[in-house]
Each structure stands twice: as C-alpha cells, then as structure tokens.
C-alpha cells in the first residue's frame, strides 16, 4: 500500500512478502498495483494543490471585481479628477490588467495542455516567455502613451506661444 507522512512530500511503499517467488506473476501484479497507487497519490496531491491555488485565485478575482466596481461608482460620483491622480490610476490599471492577462494566459495554457502531468513542458515555458513579452509590450505602450500626451501638451503650449508672438508682432 502506498502511503506518505503528512507534510513530508516523500512516498514510501510497503511490500507484503509473497510465499512464492519474487519473479512470479502475482508479485509483478502487486508491484504494478502499488506503483499505480503511488502515482495516483502523487496526482491527487498535485490536483489538490492546484485546486487550492485556484480557490485562492477565484477569491482574488472576486475581490478585484468588487474593488473595480467600487472605483467605478466612485469615479461616476466624482467627475472632476486631477490630471496627476488620473495618470497614476491609469498606470495602476494598466499594471493590474497586464498581471491579470498574464495569469489568465498561464491558466489557459495549463488547461489546454493535453499532458499536464508530464515533467517537462516546453509549451508552458513558451507561455511564460509570451506573457513576459506581453508585459513588456504593455509597459512600453504605456510609456509611449505618456510621451504622446507630453508631446501634445508641448504642441499646445507652442501654439499658444506662437499666437502671443503674432499678437506682439502685430502691435
């Protein structure tokens, strides 16, 4: 029978001796049965761990939804938000969105993988690299948006200065 002490992470196999030879068909069947039980125990532990992580993730998503609803209600009641506060809120929102997309992508790749229990998983590595690229793309897009805003402000200031210059020259 396969068993393991709680929290040890190691598995031990207790073999009942046979009265016949160890090379007998019964001994082989018993060994294969015990090995299958051990593998099933490991799979059960991995699934339980994954389920616990998914429950925590579900709780986190629900909490984020509630916070998002509260921010939406708060934004609808207060329309006059300062520019600096709006920029920091956008940055936080962008960061949160990219993290959520990274988690969703990782969960999706795990769920779509046909052989999840295999030891080496190159597509999971690809998914992590892909999510990193998405993260960097999101950050760069945010930086470009900020620079474009700054350029627009400077162009408006330039236009205002040119109007003032024309007025001064006309006098």
Describe the protein's architecture and organization.
- It is a single chain.
- Helices cover 77% and strands 2% of the residues.
- A hairpin with an 8-residue loop joins strand 1 and strand 2 (12-13).
- Helix 2 (83-112) runs antiparallel to helix 3 (122-170).
- It contains 3 helices and 2 strands, in the order E-E-H-H-H.
- A two-stranded antiparallel sheet has the order 1-2.
- It has 171 residues and is mainly α.
- The protein is elongated.
SS field, number of helical segments: 3
Report the order of strands and helices: EEHHH
Radius of gyration: 30 Å
Low-confidence stretches: none
Mass-distribution shape:
elongated
Helix content estimate: over 70%
Strand content: under 5%
Count the strands? 2
Give short descriptive properties of this protein.
171 residues; mainly alpha; two-stranded antiparallel sheet; 3 helices; 2 strands; 77% helix
How are the SSEs ordered, and which strands pair?
Layout: E1 2-3, E2 12-13, H1 25-77, H2 83-112, H3 122-170
Antiparallel strand pairs: 1-2
What can be said about this structure in brief?
With 171 residues, this protein is an all-alpha fold. The protein is built from three helices and two strands, in the order ββααα. The mean pLDDT is 76.
């Amino acid at each position: 029978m396969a068993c393991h002490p709680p929290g040890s992470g190691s598995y031990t196999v207790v073999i009942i001796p046979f009265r016949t030879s160890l090379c007998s068909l019964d001994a082989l069947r018993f060994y294969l049965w015990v090995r299958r039980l051990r593998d099933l125990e490991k799979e059960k532990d991995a699934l339980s761990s994954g389920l616990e992580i998914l429950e925590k993730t579900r709780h986190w998503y629900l909490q984020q939804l509630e916070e998002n609803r509260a921010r939406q209600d708060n934004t609808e009641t207060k329309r006059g938000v300062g520019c600096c506060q709006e920029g920091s809120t956008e940055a936080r929102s962008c960061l949160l969105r990219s993290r959520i997309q990274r988690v969703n992508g990782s969960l999706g790749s795990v769920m779509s993988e046909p052989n999840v229990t295999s030891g080496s998983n190159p597509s999971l590595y690809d998914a992590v690299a892909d999510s990193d690229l998405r993260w960097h793309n999101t950050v760069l897009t945010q930086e470009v948006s900020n620079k474009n805003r700054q350029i627009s402000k400077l162009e408006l200031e330039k236009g205002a200065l040119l109007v003032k210059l024309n007025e001064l020259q006309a006098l």
